[in-house]
Amino acid sequence: MRKFSLCLAALFVFAVAAQAEPKAEIFGGYQYTRLEGGLNWNGWNAAVTGNMGKVVGITGDFSQVYNSGVNFTTYTFGPELHAHLPIVKPFVHALVGGARLAGGGGSVNGFATYVGGGLDIGHGVFAVRVPQFDWMYAHFSGGGSSKNVRLSVGLVARF
Q: Which of 5, 67, 105, 112 has the fewest Cβ atoms within 10 Å of its own Cβ atom?
């Protein structure tokens, strides 16, 4: 009877832990970016989010897109608000950081901001992000660009 009670208690603890909010989430996937002037870029997007409660997290977002031998890299950080529902997790974020435009033997560094959000679908350890949509502002020496959008899709792992 004692072994049965221990097994039952272990099963209860496992069931409660499975329902707990994840402490961290890792995203990786494809991104499409349309920059001001009609430039279409393709590349990758990766993010790590540390959840600090039921609705708040801190996200580090890293991405790079390519077009005709030129690449555009961003590294941004900021708060995320989310709701961990049974099957879906909607979220919004505001991220700020740096940007680098490189190609043709030169490069320039600047400032980047993303404001947007998305939807993760899935229960348990893995989910699919379909999609994440962001408005982006980029500023390099001499001027800024505000008519930019980013669309990302991919996989999310929760820990």
A: 105
Give the integer Cα–Cα distance in Å for 26 and 2.
40
The rounded distance, in Å, linking the Cα atoms of 58 and 52 is 7
Total count of domains within the chain: 1
57 close to 75: Cβ distance less than 8 angstroms: no
Tens digit of each residue's pLDDT (9 = 90 or more) over 29-70: 999 999 998 999 999 999 999 999 999 999 999 999 999 999
Three-state helix/strand/coil letters over 16-82: HHHHCCCCEEEEEEEEEEEECCCEEEEEEEEEEEEECCCCEEEEEEEEEEEECCEEEEEEEEEEEEE
CB within 8 Å of 130: residues ≥ 6 apart: 118, 119, 120, 121, 153
Residue 118 belongs to a domain: yes
Domain hosting 134: range is: 21-158
Residue 63 lies in a domain: yes
Residue corresponding to tokens 């991405």: 63
Contact 91, 71 (CB under 8 A): no
| Residue 114 covered by a domain | yes
- The per-residue pLDDT for range 66-121, each reduced to its tens digit, is 999 999 999 999 999 999 999 999 999 999 999 999 999 999 999 999 999 999 99
**pLDDT score of 78:** 98
